[in-house]
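To whoever is on call:

I kicked off a structure prediction for a single chain this morning and the downstream step that reads the tokens threw a length-mismatch warning. I double-checked the sequence; it's 114 residues and nothing unusual in it as far as I can see. Pasting both halves so you can look.
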Amino acid sequence: MHNLQHLREVYSLDDILPEARPHDAFGDVLVLEALFERLYAEAGSKLGNNPIEWLLYTSYVPNIHIVMPFGKYKDTPVDEVPSEYLEYLQRQPNLDEDMAATIEHYLGSWRLAA
């Protein structure tokens, strides 16, 4: 998950929104509006007439991590993390949806390869 300031920087929204101050309610609305317009335009160029369906779909589907975002193996490609560590993480009660899907994806791939 990214905070609004990070997204503002990634999508270069500072150039078009110099009046939007961080941590200001009206500034946040301006940034969200510009971010939506940017994502809508990008999705439209890739998907044609109805990018809203794609945007909704991607908001409901868990993201599969490519690198470990935390812990002993932080910044290590997930496919290089020992399966024992992923199995340990899988048993943790507070695992977020994206990490749970990532672990299932990689453990499933390894089980199929074995």
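Update from on-call: the warning came from a stale cache, not from the record. Cleared it. Sanity check on the structure: The chain has two domains: 4-60, 63-114.
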